[in-house]
Amino acid sequence: MADAAVREKSTTAEPEGELTDGFHLVIDALRLNGINTIYGVPGIPITDLGRLAQARGMRVISFRHEQNAGYAASIAGFLTRQPGVCLTVSAPGFLNGLTALANATTNCFPMILISGSSEREIVDLQQGDYEEMDQLAVAKPLCKAAFRILNAQDIGIGVARAIRAAVSGRPGGVYLDLPAKLLSQVMDAEAGRKSLVKVVDPAPAQIPAPSAVKRALDLLRGAKRPLIILGKGAAYAQADAAIRTLIEKTGIPFLPMSMAKGILPDTHPQCAGAARSTVLKDSDVVMLIGARLNWLLSHGKGKTWGEPHSKTFIQIDIEPKEIDSNVGIAAPVVGDIGSCVSALVDAMGGSWPAPPSDWTDAIKAKKEENIAKMASRLMRNAVPMDFHSALGALRSVIKERPDAILVNEGANTLDLARGVIDMYQPRKRLDVGTWGVMGIGMGFAIAAAIETGKPVLAVEGDSAFGFCGMEVETICRYNLPVCVVVFNNNGIYRGTDVNPGGGSDPATTAFVKDARYDRIIEAFGGVGVHVTTPDELKRAVDTAMNSRRPTLINAVIDPAAGTESGRIGKLNPQSMVRKKT
Ligand code: ADP
Ligand code: TZD
Ligand code: MG
Asked: Which of 468, 493, 564 to mutate to test the pocket of ligand 2 (most atoms within 8 A of CB)?
């Protein structure tokens, strides 16, 4: 294959009859639109694309598996509101990246998966090209939009469409198919430059109707037990100041969803996180800001929501189809969160009645009761550690370093960390999101370090870590300030299960006992630490965060401490046959 980076030198040396090609145009189109980082895995036909991007000063982060590169791109999109770009080879590389693209769409993260593909003539006649696959057709149902570019002069408009599709309206994943032939297509450089498109206002403000704003405020003003729920859409919107004004001006208690923690600190007096069950059950008017009534909110109905008592919902969302998805919404406010929240604040006027004190007092009492209950569990200096004693140490780490980014996955490791570790700043907690997908950890940690430069603490179940653990090499290679803590309880949920058939195979949920995950990172020159007490854990994390050296801490957790499926055991269908026998 021709070396595009070398060709670049020879073409820039000739002022007359200057040529460009598909490789250069793709890079130029991305850079023109402010995209300066690519996450991916090289190979045919995109190896030169990565080289050329690097030659042109872009950051190209090369992973060990495309799924992790895809997760990295998607969370870069969440953190920056610019589509994160993942670059893969054809068929298998594309498919490896596709899970992350689908996950991005599900979570409303803007991302573009760019994959090289084989020759159309051969693919469409199914003649067996190298890594042959009709990638566009496969990608389409799993993303927000999918495009293929066939002519070099269309690269500018194709990239522009992909960017706009990813970030406008409800953000999501976009697939961009680049056949090998396109990349080596040559055209006049000046015509090429003119064909590029700088996207103007890629995510236009969407202003809510004044009547919708009034309807929402009328309901909120009349509420006896109001509640505001903040979702990750609110974190994404980066309307932190307006959201804080709305919440503090109304005095209404708020409940953050997992990745919305920290928009206002979890320690804010109006935060009802520690009284979650109570506020969901007993509230009368609930305003959702960038949160969907999906399984994570019990679909807005049932006992969780205090049925048979009825609930009145106000919902702010950019996606009109989201309204009435699970229950009727009394006051939809459709628009972008920044515009909607500002419109609400403006229309509230000077004075606003504080919520009835019996409501806020009841929440306060419940919070104090739950926080006291938890405090004693966090302080237990148990050996081996249980989840709470280990998390008590990590809770202190984030309290002392509120600008660090916390990445979190697992079952017990996830559910308990979410409740125990308070967040103080927006967009600092990144986790498994809407699907509860395992394997996001290392990709998220890498992108968080690259995009923000802040130290990252990745708290991983030992199973969760296994989905992406090879990327510790990537963390070491790029020398990123990432500290991975593996909560090693010897398995999925628990390490104590036995083979119910009595055979010599291990139980399906149990791993090698007493594995030393810390030794994995040592193979790549990182720092491995093995800890068994909360004090050791705290010290090891502090050292890692201070040194900014790639570190993996194997934290030994009592294998009997976890519960089946963490906090979502009720979603687990139980075998009736097994129960009877
Ligand atoms: P969580 O899991 O935290 O409850 P969800 O992912 O379910 O959050 O919901 C996020 C919602 O936010 C989606 O319905 C999405 O359409 C919406 N959203 C995302 N960005 C914006 C924005 N800028 N303005 C308004 N709504 C947004
Ligand atoms: N595969 C994928 C991609 N996502 C999933 N969520 C699962 C499988 C199923 N699963 C969970 O929902 S949690 C989990 C799996 C395999 C791992 C839990 O074990 P862990 O955490 O070691 O990560 P704890 O602390 O032991 O509970
Ligand atoms: Mg485990």
From this structure: 493
